[in-house]
Amino acid sequence: MGSAGPPSAPGAEPPQSGTVPHSSFDTANDATAVVAGNGTVVGWTQSAQDLLGYRAAEVVGQPAGFLLATPGDPLRVAGIAERCRAGVGWSGAAAVRRRDGREIDVDLRVSASFHLDGRECFLVSGRDRGPEWTLGQSVVDAFLTSSPIGVAVLSPQLRYVWMNDTLERFGGVPREQRVGRRMSEVLPGLEADAIETLMRKVLDTGVPVIDYEYRGWSWADPHRQRAYSTSFFPLTDGDDTITGVCYMVLDVTDRWKAQQRLALVNDAGVSIGSTLDVMRTAQELADFAVPRFADLVLVDLLEPVASPEEPGPWPATPGFPGAGLPDAGTARPGAGGASSFRPRMRRAGLSSVREGCPEAIVRIGEPVDFEPPPHDFRFLVAGEPVLIPVLDSVRQLWAVEQPARAARIQEFGLHSLIAVPMRARDTVLGVTTFIRSVNLVPFEPDDVLPARELVARAAVCVDNARRYTREHAAALTLQRSLLPHTLPGGMALDVASSYLPADAKDGVGGDWFDVIPLSGARVALVVGDVVGHGISAAATMGRLRTAVHTLADMDLPPDELLAHLDDLVLRLSEEEPEGEASGTTVLGATCLYAVYDPVTQRCTMARAGHPPPVVVSPDGRVSFPELPAGPPLGLGAMPFETAEIELPEGSLIGLYTNGLIEGRDRDVELGMARLGGALSQRGLSLDTLCATVVDQLLPVPQPDDVALLLARTHELSPDHVASWDVPSDPAAVAGVRARTARLLRTWGLEELEMTTELIVSELVTNAVRYATGPIRLRLLRQSVLICEVSDTSSTSPRLRHARTTDEGGRGLFLVAQLTRRWGTRYTPEGKIIWTEQEIPTPAA
User: Fold this and answer.
1) Residue 244, SS3 per DSSP
2) Alpha carbon distance 560, 408 (integer Å)
């Protein structure tokens, strides 16, 4: 019948001595009976029945003497009773008779007297001294004294009647302060009420309660919480009437602490690393550990880790040179060596049980004057966690070297510390420091393992966030470097754009746009979308954008340009190794290519699987031109077709990617309607309108990149355009030159008169000499002076370097030297040779 009482609450008042004499009976119960002061048996246990064979009904109410093999000496019995009434108790050997008549020798113990239901009683315990008890009495006594199980007997009123030494040691409350009093009186502030409720249930039902666990403190160690497992059993008399309750207590603190540490580490996996943000992850570690593990947590990361865009952190290899870290083999104390080196760190996480974290000198985001407990950077690179059970602000160099830190230690009672280096994948990330102050229990060696596990899990999350941030920033930088930095719409278009990358979950994508000046004052507008996200998609976008620029310089019509781009995507896909994901980002790319001519105010377009453009007329009407859809790039199955629309002066055309119109409802038609409504707003500048539309339509969260390109059209007025037909006669060249000179004087471009005459003379002469059919000259004054000569020949002139003995062949060479750029574009009727000259800036 072993049981131990619960430990006492810290600060509980000790009870006063009771009227019941205390018991020195300290053995665990074997065969036990309760004997009244007149010698009558009043309580009988199952263990007594097992030893002697008598049932409770045959013994209770009978004189205890009939159980003895020989009558006891009355004087000796009286002496034993007097000794027990004095509170000393008695033990010795006796011969008893079993129910079957067999005599056995037993070791008897009689407790100090106590009162049960108002009458004097003694607790008598015995054990067989036969062959099964071969151990000597001294060995048995030693075992019972050192038993890890505490035992107590309580009356029906739940008052302590008897307890062993183990229970007294568990609770820290002396035996004399317990006997005769209730648990709730002796141990206030714990689970005494709940335990008494369980014991009443045992008294009422007779059903034992096994392995009830609870938490408590011991007076011997009032600051350290302990765990106990308790079982409760009823005591019965001969009529099976319950006359009391016995309980046993086992200290299971080690098991409970192991479970707590395991739960701590498991919970950390859910709470730490919820985002791919380095600073957020560090703060999650600090918040998680307070207060369940520490009262103050500091997470300090190396500068390259806290700012992932900077060069990478150190490898976790002792003594490596480079990265600003001295070689451990050559570093010298006091000379910039290992012992004097202090890495640059930044506070990334901070949490405290005190509001505002007043214990911390450095706040989040501020640089940290790093001074790890071992005073050596090797602690970060290859060191083990450091445990300082007792912080000494007077003697420890780590605190003394910084007076402000020593003052905080004393002011806030910081008394125990664990510092753990953060490393992941052979990379040094920083250090995490756990400190206790309000929790008066110092860290112990068993706390180092959970601290290490917490930091290890957080370190992997920090490293993942660092790697992701660097890759995301690299992809974003790559993508933005590939997007146009300026949008040269010239005098033909006012242009505005907006680009927003996908959210952090999916990363950078392959949306892109461009504005490309073409010959003849025309401007190309391009928008495209590459399938996928990340650096691969951004790199593919860059390849397509470069290809479009190259094809646009050839002055190909939109349908032919998309056909060439489609062939390019097919070749790129074939070049990719089979099974690699990067190849799939090329197939399925979409593109819309439009060319606007400010002279004719016509816009020619073709698309490859891309949403149609949106057009807002000068009077505010919104439309989506019906363009032939065309397949996405890379399929090579269907041809592309062009469509032409008129865009009067002041029209607005918008090119966009599907991320802008595919909202949370994924209804594309509804998204297009919302886009048209947003673009019809009046009174906004083009840049403001572009930003406003994206803000209104951007889905939250943003699943895809969003690109929007807006252009407002302008007409090239007739007084800036001059054209006339030229007879196919060499003699007509002189008249063309003179007419050109007069036009330039009218436009106020006298400075360009001589060079333009030479250019016109050379181009018209070549057309007369080598082409057939009608010849036409056109001059356009825009941001540049454009000269175009068209003929019906499809043969393109070729620039060559004439030898000194050649009489000709220098014409196009002179043209190339006198112009900013020149080229040839083909038309259904033939070709056009064009040149551009810079218009001189008027003198201030």
Assistant:
1) strand
2) 75
Amino acid sitting at position 292: R
Contacts of 101 (CB under 8 A, 6+ apart): none
Peptide bond into 445 cis (omega under 30): no
> Among positive and negative, which fits the CA dihedral 697, 698, 704, 708?
positive
Average pLDDT of the chain, as a whole number: 80
Spell out the alpha helix ranges (H) of 624-719.
Answer: 668-679, 686-697
Q: How far is CA 337 from CA 278, 788, 829, in A?
A: 30, 73, 79
776 burial type by CB count under 10 A (0-12 exposed, 13-18 middle, 19+ buried)? middle
| C-alpha to C-alpha distance for 147 and 424, rounded to whole angstroms | 47
Q: What is the pLDDT of residues 792-843, one digit of tens each?
A: 888 777 666 545 444 445 677 888 888 999 988 888 888 999 999 999 887 6
Which residue type is seen at 444? E
Residue labelled with tokens 């941001």? 783
The answer to whether 658 touches 529, Cβ cutoff 8 Å, is yes
For the segment 575-594, the average pLDDT, to the nearest whole number, is 69
The Cα 97–Cα 104 span in angstroms is 6
At 175-192, the pLDDT tens digits run 777 888 888 887 765 578
Q: How far apart are CA 510 and CA 587, in angstroms?
A: 12
Mean pLDDT of 282-304: 92
Neighbouring-strand partners of residue 602: 597, 646
Task: Report the Cα 8 to chain-centroid distance in Å.
Answer: 43
Whether residue 621 contacts residue 679, with contact meaning beta carbons closer than 8 Å, is answered with no
Phi, psi (degrees; rounded to nearest 5) at 7 = -70, 165
| DSSP symbol at 278 | H
Record the tokens describing residue 329, joined without a space: 């083999």
Whether the CA torsion 731, 737, 740, 745 is positive or negative: it is negative
- Cα 811 to the chain's mean position, in Å? 67
How far from 359 is each of 413, 432, 676, CA to CA, in Å? 9, 16, 57
Three-class DSSP labels, 515-552: EEECHHHCEEEEEEEEEEECHHHHHHHHHHHHHHHHHH
Beta-strand pair 114-116/523-533? unpaired
Q: What is the pLDDT of residue 250?
A: 86
Burial class (CB in 10 A: 0-12, 13-18, 19+), 663: middle
Inter-residue contact 544 to 589 (CB < 8 Å): yes
DSSP secondary structure string, 164-218? -HHHHHHH---GGGTBTSBHHHHSTTSSHHHHHHHHHHHHHH---EEEEEEEEEE
What is the rounded CA–CA span in Å between residue 402 and residue 368? 12
